[in-house]
Structure formats: structure tokens, C-alpha cells
Amino acid sequence: MLLIGVAALGPLAGCNILPPPEGPSLLAQRPDRSFGPSSQRLDENGYPLLGAFPGQAAPQLDSAAVASDRDGLLSAARQQNNQVRSASAEYQSSVAAARKIRAQHEKDVNAITSIEVQRNAARKSNEDVLRQIEGR
């Protein structure tokens, strides 16, 4: 029974169960913002006291840092949009090329299978066919 189970799992060994690793996320690429020590009151072990609210608000980002982050995110969005447009244009051009090939093949098939071609082929004698094969 164990041998059958191992043999059944053999084809599954090649399956990729885990997704491929991703590159760093946008969040991981952002610079670390250190705001200094918290004003939250802590107990003697360093844990925050429940119900003990901070005495002051956390420091806010300055306008320059916000503008810098916004510019970086907007440029990343523009770059991603350009990549999507480029990929879309490449796809559309490959679809157009495939349609052109399909139209040419359809034209060739119609030319080969037309009734006139079949009638002319039926009119050929055996000697005509032999001459065509021999190249005379």
C-alpha cells in the first residue's frame, strides 16, 4: 500500500507548489522613518500600560518628505503605466501580424480549393501529370 502511495505521489514531485519569490515591495523600498521614542507610558517590563494613552501626538511628517514620497510614487506609477502600454502595444502588433498571416493562409486555401482549380486538375491527363512531375 505504501509503495502505491509513493508511486502516486511521484508525478506530483515536479509540481511547483510554492509561488516564485517576488522582488522587494514598494513598502520595503521606502526609507525608514524613525520618529524617536514613543510617549506611550510603559510598565517596568517595557510593555505599554493598558488604558494609558500617550501624553502627546506622534510627530508628523514634514511637507518636503510627503512631497518627496509622492513624487517617487507618482514616477513609479508612470513607469508601470508605460510598461503596461508597451506590453499592450506589443500584444496588439502580434495580434495584427497573426491576423495578416491568417488572412494570407485563408486566401491560399481558397485558391487551392476553388472549384475552377479542381476542374482544371480533373481535366489533366496522366501524361500531363507525368510531364509536370518530370519537369518538362
Task: Kindly estimate the percentage of residues that lie in beta strands according to DSSP.
Answer: under 5%
Tally of strands: 0
- Tally the helices: what do you get? 5
Helical percent range?
55-70%
Overall structural class, as computed from helix and strand content, comes to mainly alpha
Spatial separation of the terminal alpha carbons: 72 Å
Q: Give me the oligomer status.
A: single chain
- Specify Rg, calculated over alpha carbons: 36 Å
What overall geometry do the principal axes of the alpha carbons give?
rod-shaped
Residue stretches low in confidence (pLDDT < 50, at least 5 long) are none
Mean pLDDT, all residues: 77
Element pattern in H and E: HHHHH
Can you walk me through this structure?
It is a single chain. The chain is mainly alpha-helical and 136 residues long. It is built from five helices and no strands. The chain has helices spanning 2-9, 26-29, 63-113, 115-123, 126-134. The longest helix is centred in the middle third of the chain and has 51 residues, at 63-113. The chain starts with a helix and ends with a helix.
